[in-house]
Each structure stands twice: as C-alpha cells, then as structure tokens.
Design a protein that fits this description.
Layout: H1 9-12, E1 19-22, H2 24-33, H3 37-45, H4 54-66, E2 70-75, E3 82-87, E4 93-98
Parallel strand pairs: 1-4
Antiparallel strand pairs: 2-3, 3-4
C-alpha cells in the first residue's frame, strides 16, 4: 500500500471484527512508532494482511468468505516489533498484541 493511501473500512470491509481488544505493550509500541491502531485494524479488515506468508494470506482470504480465524502481522518501522491482529472465527473479537506476546502455537 503506497504511503498516503487512505482506506475506508466502511467500503472495503471483508468481514466483521467484533469487539477489538489490545495489550498494553502493543499500545506502547504503536505510540512509539507513531502508528495508529485504527490504521492496522483497517488494513486487516480490508485484506491487507501485512507480513504473513502466502499460505497464511490464502487462509485469510478463505476465512474472510467462509469463516475461520483471520491473522495479520505488521512490522513497526521504528521498533523491532511486529503487531499481530487476530479476528476470531466467530467474529466476536479482534485482538491486537505483539507477536512476542502470542502463544507459541499461534505465532504465525
């Protein structure tokens, strides 16, 4: 996505997000990097899944249509951190956390 490009999640939303939660550590990292939570959530919901594998992208595209967990990852430019955005299969919640905070079995 080019710098300065603005998405409108009301127009491009591929799936419902549910209740959005975040960890304190991710909020600190976003603040230090001058990145908004909204910008990452919007990218996630609009199908820009960030720094994930092609296989994960394919799973996300399928999950957006037929249900299933949607997982995105975004590297913060001024941090050595990666923010993971995970929307549950039932679309009740979306959680933002640092990849380093993710349980080992879900660190994709």
């Amino acid at each position: 996505m080019g710098k300065g490009y603005v998405m409108d999640s009301a127009v491009c939303a591929l799936f419902d997000m549910g209740f959005v939660t975040r960890t304190p550590a991710v909020m600190v990292a976003l603040f230090r990097s001058n990145v908004t939570e909204h910008s990452l959530v919007e990218r996630h919901q609009c199908g820009d899944f960030g720094d994930v594998t092609e296989a994960r992208c394919a799973l996300n595209r399928q999950a957006a249509v037929s249900g299933g967990e949607v997982v995105s990852a975004y590297r913060l430019s001024h941090e050595a951190s990666v923010v993971q955005v995970v929307t549950s299969a039932d679309r009740s919640t979306t959680h933002l956390r640092l990849l380093s905070e993710a349980p080992q079995d879900s660190a994709r």
